């Protein structure tokens, strides 16, 4: 990794891409501290501390939500729009065909849907935080909603600029930058914990660091882990040319769903508690808050089960064994020991199911691990398994793209 970064800095074109990406990060961090007009920041701070889901949004936005800045909604509407479009391409045949023929059109529809979702979410946020508004007139609410929508659209544009002119996936890097920007405050929390607990605090922090390091290694191993199903292509003679005859494989990742199941499960579980936090004087709302307490056993068990369910669900809609088997058959390929067609698709589905189970259990374990650590040590750190999965996944993907860029630059071809 260090050698790759060193080579990237030496290469002029790659260095320019890295500098451009860092400049966009700077713009993102500046925008995270520009407040939305007509908002009482103290009320937002209190609500963010009380509601866990709002704390999750604040982590994703790099503190922009707690500051209620123009980037308070971060890039979450774009993520939601991308997921919705991916689901629609599975449900609607015309969109599925369009996704295969013209990805740019799908990207355009995703942008439009992002703006619509951002505006709807901004209106909901404006009414939900009506108590934080200095002026509660319709014009004032509309101003807040339009400002938040414009901030999300600006972040989407910055992300696409990074993808086009920088290094890595811009949208993922924005989320990465938001999470990493919370590390200094996390270090301050660790220091305060050591000062408060003394020698025991030092021991706990060292154990926490060891567990965190082991978790990072495990995440890297799972993210890179894959099952390779061998595929053999028969030789075909067309005229005077011979096609096929080579061996290849189908890579099936252990964690093909990424971090999406964790986000889905967290959103569903924390929604009741977040709504209940808007009614602090209601006994029923308080009971809902107690049931869906993030530190409770019931919450974490349900959290793990939902992650397993959504991992299977997302893997099923994003990977179709029948289509894969048909493509292999059309190209004259076969899996050794299996007949083309239905036996091949059943075998791929069986392998996918087993691999997904292991990945789902791993995701659930990583997601629940911070709650166990905080329950044992009393250490309050909002840098959970979701953040760890996002940071490690984006870092690995960015390094792969950087290595590919350097490889293309140094490739001399057949003629020298």
- For the CA atoms, what is the radius of gyration? 24 Å
The order of strands across the largest sheet is 4-1-5
Structural class: mainly alpha
| Alpha-carbon distance between the two ends | 29 Å
> What is the overall silhouette?
globular
CATH class of one domain: Mainly Alpha
CATH H-level superfamily of one domain = SecY subunit domain
* Percent helix: over 70%
Q: Mean of the pLDDT scores? A: 79
Query: What letter string, H or E per element, gives the SSE order?
Result: HHHHHHHHHHHHEEEEHHHHEHH
CATH topology of one domain: Preprotein translocase SecY subunit
Please give the number of β-strands. 5
Beta-strand residue percentage: 5-15%
Structure annotation, total helices: 18
Describe, in plain words, how this protein is organized in 3D:
- By secondary structure, the protein is mainly α.
- It has a domain at 1-182: Orthogonal Bundle (Preprotein translocase SecY subunit), CATH 1.10.3370.10.
- Helix content is 73%, strand content 6%.
- The chain contains 18 helices and 5 strands.
- The strands form 2 sheets. A 3-stranded antiparallel sheet has the order 4-1-5.
- The protein is globular, with a radius of gyration of 24 Å.
């Amino acid at each position: 990794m260090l050698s790759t970064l060193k080579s990237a800095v030496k290469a002029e074109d790659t260095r320019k891409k890295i500098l451009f990406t860092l400049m966009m990060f700077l713009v993102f961090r500046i925008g995270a501290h520009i407040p939305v007009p007509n908002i009482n920041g103290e009320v937002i701070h209190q609500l963010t501390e009380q509601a866990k889901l709002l704390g999750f949004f604040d982590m994703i936005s790099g503190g922009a939500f707690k500051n209620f800045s123009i980037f308070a909604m971060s890039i979450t509407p774009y993520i939601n729009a991308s997921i919705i479009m991916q689901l629609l391409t599975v449900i609607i045949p015309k969109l599925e065909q369009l996704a295969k023929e013209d990805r740019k059109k799908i990207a355009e529809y995703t942008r439009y849907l992002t703006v619509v979702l951002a505006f709807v979410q901004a209106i909901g946020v404006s009414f939900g935080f009506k108590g934080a508004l200095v002026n509660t007139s319709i014009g004032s609410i509309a101003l807040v909603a339009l400002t938040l929508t414009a901030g999300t659209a600006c972040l989407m544009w910055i992300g696409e600029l990074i993808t086009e002119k920088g290094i890595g996936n811009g949208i993922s890097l924005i989320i990465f930058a938001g999470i990493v920007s919370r590390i200094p405050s996390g270090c301050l929390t660790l220091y305060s914990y050591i000062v408060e607990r003394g020698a025991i605090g030092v021991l706990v922090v060292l154990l926490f660091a060891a567990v965190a390091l082991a978790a990072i290694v495990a995440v890297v191993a799972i993210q890179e882990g894959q099952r390779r199903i061998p595929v053999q292509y028969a030789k075909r003679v067309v005229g005077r040319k011979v096609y096929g005859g080579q061996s290849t494989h189908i890579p099936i990742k252990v964690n093909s769903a990424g971090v999406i199941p964790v986000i889905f499960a967290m959103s569903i579980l924390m929604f009741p508690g977040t709504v209940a936090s808007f009614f602090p004087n209601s006994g029923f709302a308080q009971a809902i808050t107690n049931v869906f307490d993030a530190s409770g056993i019931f919450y974490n068990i349900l959290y793990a089960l939902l992650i397993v369910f959504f991992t299977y669900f997302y893997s099923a809609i994003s990977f179709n064994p029948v289509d894969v088997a048909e493509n292999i058959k059309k190209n004259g390929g076969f899996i050794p020991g299996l007949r083309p067609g239905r036996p091949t698709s059943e075998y791929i589905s069986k392998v996918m199911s087993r691999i997904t189970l292991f990945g789902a259990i791993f995701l659930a374990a990583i997601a629940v691990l911070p709650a166990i650590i905080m329950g044992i040590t009393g250490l309050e750190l909002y840098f959970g398994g979701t953040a760890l999965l996002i940071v490690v996944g984006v870092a690995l993907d960015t390094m792969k793209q950087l290595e590919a860029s350097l490889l293309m630059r140094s490739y001399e071809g057949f003629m020298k």
